[in-house]
Amino acid sequence: MASAALAIVIVTYDSAGHIGATLDALRPQLEPGDELCVVDCASPAGPPTAEVARHAPTARLIALAENAGFAGGANVGAATTTAPLILLLNPDCVAQPGALAALRASAEAQPRWGCWQALVTLPGGGEINTSGGITHWLGFGWTGEYGAAVPPAGAALREVSFASGAACVVRREAWDAVGGFDPDYFMYAEDVDLSFRLRLAGWGVGVVLDARVEHDYGFTKGDYKWFLLERNRWWTVLATYPSALLWPLLPALLGTELVVLVVAARSGWLPAKLRAQAAVLRSLPRALARRRRVQATRRIPASAFAGYLSARLDSPFLDAAAAGRLPQTLQAAYWRVVVRWAERSPNSLARRSA
User: Is the pTM value of this prediction over 0.90?
Assistant: First the structure.
């Protein structure tokens, strides 16, 4: 069987210094029928026209008049391509030899997966950036196995909580069914939200460990990033958590806001956190309307969705927040009670269909 064609979408913003290496690594891995689309989000220095022409002359370059963020830019790229698999790739990611072939093969090996990521490594390729996202039940998401040694070749395909948008394939059928990214997210956590919506709709989400992509990664902690992370975390929780999880978790979610406020004040990003809270409150009617649309697509019971949320808040990037959390044993016990409730809830699809 011929391998499925890829529509490779790269969203750029002042990425001229990186994209040449990204395109050079892609070019020898392209197959007939593949499409390569670069979407520039109104870079202040201008789109990387010369770099794209030099390193990938057959690529389509779309220069947006306004910055639509990663989410909006990716939507534009997906809408202007037709291949059955959409590969979202950051402009500072370098696909190692064989990466695209491994990602293509997974489309046939896992026909019910709606999206799957490559193993994203740190520069040099020896350490993991993310082997699949981890999400705590409070909605905090982070990169799995960050800093761990890269596994040997031949590792099995496996499911993950969410697939990183840095190097992620989405089946066009699945992308179209859930509407792609929500452009209001702009950037950060849009990949968590997409993965969760796909899972609710009955698709799997996984990682292909033999597809290696190096990423020039650094976790910056500016105010604007914290604002987007916190706002988008709440938008995702409100839209995607089934009612049998959301309502019993709401007291803990609201209580955690007090802890996060204290942490934000100590760490210097309290204004960003307050802006995020205000943005969530202002957008609540829209968020609840979106929730109704998302939940209408749900094809799995709440307990199955819960299986991809973690009871351990042990992200290497949330040390400050973790210092003020309830002891692990207490919050894990709370989560076990909620999961049992979800399993027995009349809101469960299994119970409703019985």
Answer: yes
